[in-house]
Amino acid sequence: MVNTNVVRDASIWAVIVTFHPDERTHRLIEVLTRQVQKCIVVDNGSTERELAALVKATDSCEAKLCALGSNMGIAYAQNVGIEIALEANATHVLLSDQDSLPPQDMVSALLEAMEETGAEAVGPFIRDNNGGDDELVYISRTWGPRRASTNELRQHYVNPAFLLASGCLISSDCLREVGLMNDDYFIDHVDLEWCLRVRAHGKKIVVTTDTVLDHSLGDQTERIPFRAQPVHVHAPIRNYYLTRNTILLCKSGLLTRRWIVGYLVWLAKYVGFNILLAPQRFQRASYIGRAIIDGITGKTGKYSIRR
Q1: First and final C-alpha spacing in the chain
Q2: Which helix (DSSP H) or strand (DSSP E) does residue 192 occupy?
Q3: CB 197 within 8 A of CB 179
Q4: Is residue 233 very low, low, confident or very high in pLDDT (cuts 50, 70, 90)?
Q5: Do residues 40 and 71 touch, judged by C-beta distance below 8 A?
Q6: What confidence category does residue 63 fall into, taking pLDDT thresholds of 50, 70 and 90?
Q7: Distance of CA 159 to CAs 93, 139, 215, 223, Å?
Q8: Of 160, 291, 100, 136, nearest to 221 (Cα)?
Q9: Which residue, 143, 146, 138, 187, is CA-closest to 162?
């Protein structure tokens, strides 16, 4: 079921993480299985009905399904799939969220970009199709990652601050040397933290702007005064993970001092928006307060209710 455009002797395995998938996810599995040697679907605790539909979708495409039974987090699920691929001697691993739908030639284009640039990880030009029209390519600036400018996005290849996980093609050698995803983070900043480790190892990451991937962040977007880009309004529980993991990132040793300052300023604005302007403000404030404590004390993993 391998697309003839997949180049030479590469053995590329795709890892798709699902959580309450729908028909769009089934289409994603179908599209990716045509472009890679094997597709692994790792489900993070969907319902029995959703799993039954997922079994049909994976069986029809000869994909492998790993049902975790409960939500173990995006990083843990990615690692399950990555480890299966590495044990099968895959030369490359492609990561995908369930909310993306790649073009028919995406994988071969990413592999070509990897070979031309010498990068160890390559991602597409991701656009948010959930109403915000965000262009999700981030460049290293003095105070941290910032969105790429229009001129920068005119270049064929862009050296980003980090890659979003969905649509990211990674060499197996890089995964073995740098390590897998940090499942202590559970969700949010997982791809950022991994890419910072990649760069700390002196390895190159690239975005190929000619390959566009439509992706849905799954969040409501809002426009606020004096800001050109839309603001993503996450579910209240995501306020916990984003706040806690930002603090953990600042303590990780992977950021420069100026980036730490930049992230703390961003966090202050993020907290202020969610407590003062977003819906469900009191619930958000509770999650954020807990996140600040857990981030400072170093508590990681899945959020749990304290009694």
Answers
A1: 51
A2: helix 190-200
A3: yes
A4: confident
A5: no
A6: very high
A7: 20, 7, 20, 28
A8: 136
A9: 138
Cβ neighbours for 268, distance < 8 A, ≥ 6 positions apart: none
> Would you say 122 and 244 are in contact if contact means Cβ atoms under 8 Å apart?
no
Nearest to 158 by CA among 177, 136, 183: 136
Quote the CA–CA distance of 132 and 231 in Å, as a whole number.
8
| Secondary structure element (H or E) that encloses residue 250, with its range | helix 236-250
Per DSSP, which regions of 38-91 are E strands? 38-43, 64-67
Helix (H, G, I), strand (E, B) or coil at 233: strand
Residue 3 pLDDT: 41
Q: How far is 165 from 154, CA to CA, in rounded Å?
A: 22
Given a contact cutoff of 8 angstroms between Cβ atoms, the answer to whether 215 and 162 are in contact is no
Return the structure tokens found at 33: 């299985």
Q: pTM of this prediction?
A: 0.92
CA-based R_g, the chain, Å: 19
How would you classify the pairing of strands 92-97 and 12-18?
A: parallel
- For residue 66, what are its two tokens? 């790993």
Strands 38-43 and 64-67, bridge-based pairing: parallel
For 112, residues 6+ apart whose C-beta sits below 8 A from its C-beta are 7
Tokens, residue 283: 């619930």
